[in-house]
Design a protein that fits this description.
Layout lengths: L5 E4 L15 H13 L4 E5 L5 H10 L8 E7 L11 H9 L3 E7 L2 H8 L3 H16 L4 E7 L1 H7 L1 H14 L3 E6 L6 H14 L6 E5 L6 H10 L4 E4 L13 H11 L13 H11 L17 E2 L2 H9 L17 E2 L7 H10 L9 H16 L7 H11 L8 E12 L3 E12 L2 E9 L2 H13 L10 E10 L8 E9 L4 E8 L2 H22 L4
Parallel strand pairs: 1-2, 1-8, 2-3, 3-4, 4-5, 5-6, 6-7, 7-8, 9-10
Antiparallel strand pairs: 11-12, 12-13, 14-15, 15-16
Helix pairs in contact: 1-2, 1-11, 5-7, 6-7, 8-9, 15-17, 16-17
The structure holds zinc ion.
The site of zinc ion has 5 residues, from loops.
């Protein structure tokens, strides 16, 4: 039997500490569902005591079904001098109500006396009492030993006593944290060995490291090599300062290089897509040279490499790129991975046999749109429509004759946007006008006004999130704008994309796709 290493994702909490990373609540729900499909073991949803948005997330996912992942909430041990039962932070965790909770406590004596301003003994009591209290309310209580490695280097005896306090209280896992991210692999190895001499052999240990020495992945693996069976990190390594440990590298390293059990091996094929999905929702450009999943990870340039790699891929590739959902690219002649598209098409229930004219047509359309700046990772709904259009199955629900948007600055009320839309629905011309707090909002209102008499189910749908990215790779000509819209109707959440030189036009495309997707799906499910 292979040893099982569980993965604990904290993209939605620690990951959002990264500069430029922000997720709306809908983004967080979509990411949690995507990670669950990947079979990640734990998904940390946020810190309910620290902000109301996180508490709303936990309420929102209470009814959602997660097939593998356990949702966890994050918080701190009780405050000094307060009973655990009366601590508002601990109460917020109980109110959030997920099956698992993770609390952090101080391991470094300096932090206890100088940051917390309490005694070393009180800190030990805070750890033990908080865990005992939480065990009454949760299936599992995970203990994060904050600053453990730094604390161990300064006051080894005290750092170990904090761990033993958590162990004695019954924590299900003791997670050793390199919070400042300054550790190196050989130090992690030595310290984990020392910890193992002190805790009970059956006590599960975990690792949570940051990337300040660019060793976060290596440090996590060093801990696993010493028998640690619980690894915390984030998708793409997003996180404070230089980031957290990157799970997109750790997971294939565990499965393919260390032959350990983690997520099902077949699911590794989703890694590239998950990585790009999260980067799209974070509104961050994918990292081209990202190991395993980046565009350049299996890109070959130059005559000798290319001919060798085509004959014997192992000459210049450490793994088969398909194993992680990536594909070989031979620069000069851009070969997009057709199998990738077929796989994606299958996922959407569109059957495409290998190398049919339809597959070629979809591939061609996709390549062309990607060249224009489209990205479909966060826009599954637009991709589905793209396939339908390429296959000739698409029947538009309305036709546009024209639209017009104006923005007026009025001294008293600030700017006001107005939109008029002229469309034809089932052959009938419709002409509507509406206002909104911005041009896109006004367009959305005017379009719905024109459509809702014909398609009343649109009333259930709303625009949940709107993201804009300027595509600077097109700077040479005119800067292009990519708009990503997230919509939902209570049953489902979906993403659509539009690209144009003009932000209104890009928004319009994404808006239209969003409505088309909703109408098409409802029609297929007989909900009209
Ligand atoms: Zn952290």
């Amino acid at each position: 039997m292979k040893r099982l290493v569980k993965v604990y994702d904290t993209t939605l909490r620690d990951g959002t500490q990264g500069e430029g990373v922000a997720f709306s609540m809908e983004d967080k729900v979509r990411i949690a569902q995507r990670l669950d499909a990947l079979c990640i073991h734990y998904i940390e949803g946020g810190w309910p005591g620290s902000n109301p948005k996180d508490l709303r997330f936990f309420k929102r996912v209470q009814d959602a079904v997660f097939k593998t992942a356990k949702i966890t909430a994050f918080g701190a041990t009780r405050r000094p001098g307060v009973r655990a039962e009366e601590d508002t932070n601990l109460q917020a965790l109980v109110e959030a109500g997920p099956p698992v909770v993770t609390i952090f406590g101080k391991s470094w004596d300096f932090h206890v006396t100088h940051a917390l301003g309490t005694t070393l003994e009180e800190n030990l009591a805070m750890i033990g009492e908080s865990i005992r209290f939480l065990l009454k309310h949760f299936e599992e209580v995970i203990y994060d030993a904050e600053h453990f490695f730094d604390g161990f280097k300064r006051n080894r005896e005290y750092a170990l006593r904090t761990l033993l306090a958590a162990e004695a209280a019954g924590a299900h896992c003791l997670v050793l944290c390199d919070t400042n991210g300054g550790g190196l692999p050989h130090e992690i190895t030595e310290i984990v060995r020392e910890v193992k001499k002190v805790v009970k052999p059956a006590t599960p240990l975990g690792i949570h490291v940051h990337n300040d020495t660019e060793c976060a992945v290596a440090n996590s693996l060093a801990a696993v090599a010493e028998g640690v069976n619980h690894v915390q990190g984030t998708i793409n390594g997003y996180g404070e300062r230089c980031g957290n440990a990157n799970l997109v590298s750790i997971i294939p390293n565990l499965v393919l290089k260390m032959a350990l059990q983690c997520i099902p091996e077949g699911n590794l094929r989703e890694l590239r897509e998950v990585s790009r999905f999260v980067s799209e929702l974070a509104n961050r450009k994918p990292w081209t040279a990202q190991p395993y999943v980046g565009d350049s990870a299996f890109a070959h340039k130059g005559g000798i490499h290319v001919s060798a790699v085509l004959k014997h891929p192992e000459t210049y590739e450490h793994i088969d790129p398909e194993l992680v959902g990536n594909h070989r690219r031979v620069l000069v002649s851009e070969l997009a991975g057709q199998s990738n598209i077929l796989w994606k098409a299958k996922e959407y229930g569109i059957d495409l046999d290998k190398d049919t004219p339809e597959a070629r047509r979809i591939l061609q359309t996709l390549k062309q749109l990607e060249d224009e700046g489209y990205q479909f990772e966060g826009a599954e709904a637009s991709f589905e429509l793209l396939m339908e259009r390429a296959l000739g199955n698409h029947r538009p629900y309305f036709e546009l004759d024209g639209y017009r948007v104006t923005v007026d600055e009025r001294k008293a009320d600030g700017p006001i946007a107005e939109a008029t839309v002229r469309i034809r629905v089932k052959g009938i011309p419709e002409h509507t006008a509406a206002s909104g707090n911005g041009p896109v909002n006004a367009l959305d209102h005017a379009l719905r006004k024109a459509l809702e008499d014909f398609y009343p189910n649109l009333k259930a749908m709303s625009l949940l999130d709107y993201k804009v990215r300027i595509l600077d790779e097109f700077k040479g000509t005119a800067a292009k704008t990519r708009v990503l819209i997230t919509s939902g109707d209570g049953d489902e959440t979906w993403g659509t994309v539009g690209v144009s030189d003009n932000i209104i036009d890009a928004s319009w495309q994404a808006l239209v796709d969003s409505i088309e997707y909703k109408l098409r799906r409802d029609e297929r499910h007989g909900r009209r």
